[in-house]
Amino acid sequence: MPGGRTVTAAIEKPKRKRDAVKSRQGILRTASREFGQHGFSGARVERIATRSKSNMRMIYHYFGDKEGLYLAVLEDAYTRIRNEEDKLDLTGAAPIDGMRRLINFTFDFFASNNDVLALISNENTLRAKYLRRIPNVRAMTAPLVRSIEEMIEKGQRQGLFRPRIDAIQFYVSLVALSQIHIANRYTLSVIFDRDTADPRWLDDRRKHAEEVLMAYLIQR
């Protein structure tokens, strides 16, 4: 019946859309691991197709080519960071509490998302060649910088934070303290005869990072 076909088509259309979104996300997740492990040059679209249970035609349909796929993966990585930061809802947060939450979140995010850290590291070896081509990457970061600036200013007005704190300098230090033990885990483990991937060691490391950064902020 014509009416039946119309209803069936109406049902199938959103299902196809959901399947397409799911398929695209699956490709992005697999590609993130591939580019993280092998860098842009060493990554193979054929492996991504096989491991994501898709095919080359589908990948090129969604992303155009290898560069298009890599750009999508890179943008998705930064979007993940910014989206998770947004969930902290730092707007209006008490300065000390808000900063502690941001510090612990950033430390834990990189500990749980090694693929993002690997992508950032690889992109740095390329001197941000592809990141420059993502038009909204600065706009994505602006709300975080504003939130940090607002917490700093509020803390200074309340006599909690010292003067002359630069929000970007603070955040770069936070990122450094959240990453360096991961990027150098193997050499540090050998040099100091410590398992720097051990959960207890990482918990101590997180507390240390928080203490260092809060000591920098707090007015003495």
Short structural summary:
This protein has helices spanning 2-42, 45-51, 56-63, 66-86, 95-112, 114-125, 137-157, 167-183, 185-192, 199-217. With 220 residues, it is mostly helical. It folds into 2 domains: 1-64, Arc Repressor Mutant, subunit A; 71-220, Tetracycline Repressor, domain 2, CATH 1.10.357.10.
Helices and strands in order, then pairings?
Layout lengths: L1 H41 L2 H7 L4 H8 L2 H21 L8 H18 L1 H12 L11 H21 L9 H17 L1 H8 L6 H19 L3
3D structure, described in words:
- The protein is an all-alpha fold.
- The chain has two domains: 1-64, Arc Repressor Mutant, subunit A (Orthogonal Bundle); 71-220, Tetracycline Repressor, domain 2.
- 78% of the residues lie in helices and 0% in strands.
- The protein contains ten helices and no strands.
- Helix 3 crosses helix 4 (66-86) and helix 5 runs antiparallel to helix 10.
- The longest helix has 41 residues, at 2-42.
- It is globular.
Structural class: mainly alpha
CATH superfamily of the largest domain: Tetracycline Repressor, domain 2
Order of helices and strands: HHHHHHHHHH
Task: Name the helicity range.
Answer: over 70%
- CATH topology description of the largest domain: Tetracycline Repressor, domain 2
Please provide the count of β strands.
Answer: 0
CATH architecture of the largest domain: Orthogonal Bundle
Q: What is the rounded distance between the termini? A: 80 Å
Radius of gyration: 22 Å
Figure out the total of helices.
10
The quaternary structure here is: single chain
The biggest sheet, with number of strands, parallel, antiparallel or mixed sense and barrel status, is:
none
Report the uncertain regions: none
Could you name the CATH class of the largest domain? Mainly Alpha
What is the total domain count?
Answer: 2
Kindly state the mean pLDDT as a whole number? 92
